[in-house]
């Protein structure tokens, strides 16, 4: 059978159509559950808003917790952000179950007292049975402020 311009077009169209239709939906991206902790004002909400390409205007401190899905090309991070106020920190451990990683955000420009409190909370989280084997990301935020400490100082 000799191909005519019309049959060649139909054949090419059929191949394109078949490639599109038979390919099926893209494979689902894996999802990972993370917990994001740190003292009030450390920048947890701002960080997550930035990662989700949301406006950084009108951000208020989280009371309780919030959950955000942070999409990446090859995965989705479901981040449970826990409020950092003193009266909320005592409940953090109730939200650790099922976490696959931890983001600990600290304000590198905070006072010595706040930095010591953050250090104690970090050590407590590192020793918690549900977190101690998980990967930790420790983010020294507010590096743009004049009072920011270096990584070594933190």
Brief characterization of the structure:
With 154 residues, this protein is α/β, with parallel strands linked by helices. It contains 4 helices and 5 strands. This is ADP-ribosylation factor-like protein 15.
Describe the model.
The protein has helices at 5-23, 44-51, 86-89, 112-127, and strands spanning 31-37, 65-71, 76-82, 101-107, 136-141. A five-stranded mixed β-sheet has the order 2-3-1-4-5, sandwiched between helices. The chain has 154 residues and is α/β, with parallel strands linked by helices. 31% of the residues lie in helices and 22% in strands. It has one domain (29-139): P-loop containing nucleotide triphosphate hydrolases (Rossmann fold). InterPro entries: ARL15 (IPR042292), P-loop_NTPase (IPR027417), Small_GTPase_ARF/SAR (IPR006689). GO terms for molecular function: GTP binding; GTPase activity; metal ion binding. This is ADP-ribosylation factor-like protein 15.
| Most strands sheet | 5 strands, mixed
CATH names the topology as Rossmann fold
The largest beta-sheet arranges its strands as: 2-3-1-4-5
- Measured as a percent range, the helix fraction is 25-40%
Give me the CATH superfamily.
P-loop containing nucleotide triphosphate hydrolases
Rg, Å, rounded: 24 Å
The number of helices is 4
Number of strands: 5
Mean pLDDT: 86
CATH architecture: 3-Layer(aba) Sandwich
Shape: globular
What share of the residues does DSSP label as strand, in percent?
Answer: 15-25%
Number of domains: 1
Give the CATH level 1 class.
Alpha Beta
Distance from N terminus to C terminus (CA atoms, Å) equals 76 Å
- Spans where pLDDT lies below 50 across 5 or more residues: none
- Category by helix and strand content: alpha/beta
> What is the string of SSEs from the N terminus onward?
HEHEEHEHE
């Amino acid at each position: 059978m000799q191909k005519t311009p019309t049959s060649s077009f139909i054949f090419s169209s059929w191949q394109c159509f078949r490639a599109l239709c038979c390919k099926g939906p893209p494979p689902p991206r894996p999802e990972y559950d993370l917990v994001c902790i740190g003292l009030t004002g450390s920048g947890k909400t701002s960080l997550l808003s930035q990662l989700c390409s949301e406006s950084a205007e009108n951000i208020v401190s989280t009371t309780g917790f919030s959950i955000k899905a942070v999409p990446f090309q090859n995965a989705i991070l479901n981040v449970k952000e826990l409020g950092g106020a003193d009266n909320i920190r005592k409940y953090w451990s109730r939200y650790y179950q099922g976490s696959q990683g931890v983001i600990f955000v600290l304000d590198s420009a905070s006072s010595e007292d706040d930095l010591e409190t953050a250090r104690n909370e970090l050590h407590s989280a590192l020793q918690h049975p549900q977190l101690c084997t998980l990967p930790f990301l420790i983010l020294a935020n507010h590096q743009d402020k004049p009072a920011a400490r270096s990584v070594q100082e933190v």
